[in-house]
Amino acid sequence: MTLVIAHRGSRGNRPENTLAAFREAVRVGAEGIELDIRQTRDKEIVVIHDPKINRTTTGRGEVEKMTLEQIRQYDAGVKFSKEFKGEKIPTIREVLNLLEELDFKGLLNIEIKTNKFFHKGVEKRLAQIVKERPRPFEIVYSGFDLRSLFKINRYDPQNEKYWLVKDVKENRRKILNIEKNNIISGVHSSLGFSIRDSEFIKNIKKKIRVWTVNRDKDLLYCFEQNLEGVITDYPQKALELRDRFLATKIQKTQF
């Protein structure tokens, strides 16, 4: 069964990468949650996708040049909707604690945003936080930068690592090499890559999860291909669609 993974939380109806988004993902029953991490000037690990806070908050500035205290001065919810006024950019530790409090039992995918910004030492600090104590949910790491994934493996060899891939033509050889690599557990590929090169995808033996899958026809395609997981902005819709898909499949086998 294809796992439904909430992209930056329930991004379609909540401000992305906020505690509100992660609460909603748990509420609707998403089997996985995906989020992004970056490092602040004072070496705190915060949950945000962009290198700047401009798009998602009321402030302006680059994450790596700001302290956590400076970042927390700004609202990360009100731009999405007044209903979420007061949401802040959370730290990774706050998200881990929240999911534990909510008794989340699924998969937490932590994307390390080091492909364009180096964030010195972030892999070691992230692994230390993740390993502070056992959690009731599974944790995996992902990223576009293979070096970063190999680096975090030094500090946390236990939790799985997934390589993010956007362009198939540039990465075919690397993907085939990953097939022989024990550190990388699978590939998180773009939806376009997965559809354009479906035969290539089918022949990959490691786990394949696809991003970002929002349209009904694309979700159904992934379910039909029985891919490992879909990363979607609309986890509730995806879960309901998968239930209908599976019910129809069962009916067909009975006749």
What does this entry look like structurally?
- The protein has 255 residues and is of the alpha/beta class.
- It is 36% helix and 19% strand.
- It has ten helices and nine strands.
- An eight-stranded parallel barrel has the order 1-2-4-5-6-7-8-9, surrounded by five helices.
- It is globular and about 60 Å long.
- The two termini are 21 Å apart.
Tags for this model:
255 residues, 10 helices
Let me know the average pLDDT: 94
Poorly predicted runs are: none
Bin the strand percentage. 15-25%
- Could you give the distance between the termini? 21 Å
The tally of strands reads 9
Number of helical regions: 10
The gross shape turns out to be globular
> What structural class do the secondary elements suggest?
alpha/beta
Helix content: 25-40%
Radius of gyration: 18 Å
Q: Mind describing the biggest β-sheet?
A: 8 strands, parallel, barrel
Strand order of the largest sheet: 1-2-4-5-6-7-8-9
Q: What string, H for helix and E for strand, traces the elements in order?
A: EHEEHHEHEHEHEHHEHEH
